Amino acid sequence: MMLLGSDLDFTILMHGDDNITKKNVDAVKRFMDAGNKFAIITGRQYATFKEFLEEYDLKVDYIAGEDGCIIFDKDLNEIHRNNIKKESVDKISELADYYNYQANFDDGYSYHNEKVYNVIKIFFYKKDVEDNKEFLDKVDDIKDLTSYHSVVSYNIVEKNRKSEALDFIKDREGFNDEDVYAVGDGIADVEMVEKHHGEMLGKGKYKYLYEYIEELMKD
Fold first, then answer.
1. Model's pTM, two decimal places?
2. Fewer CB within a 10 Å sphere, N or C end of the chain?
């Protein structure tokens, strides 16, 4: 039995190519039907990954949202979360006030424009902050945080959460390291993929998830 952790956007869900998306979804279902475990580990918030699951009639064993900071079981019950520390929330808020930027506080289910502490991600819209190296450097100096750019936003979370989310699921299910795999396509997936001897899709042997799953299931 294997455990496979996968990013969602441009890994399972191929925007603009529904045919490939359906092939990926069907491959995930075959993988689980064979007795394996599958986890989606994504930067998405609860509402948007739930919408995807419903649209494609997909029920996976685990889903970790917000880059792995909040983890749900197959029935979408929250089973684990990793909030940003209170002192780090305060530091980000102070920097936002100093530079007159709008910080957005994400509790895993909804966004807040005013500071709250039960948050797992803080983000800024990319167009507002990407040219301010001084601001970005000061954020990166805050201990235990990591930051990265997505398509439209600059995101701040606790370090290494995608990789740690897959480790949490691995330990909960009792898997050995050699039976855990990971796939992704972007910078936020690199550590998870490298740690769990996986693949960055489109950058090596496999272009699409369904191809990778087919190869895994041959062994």
1. 0.86
2. C
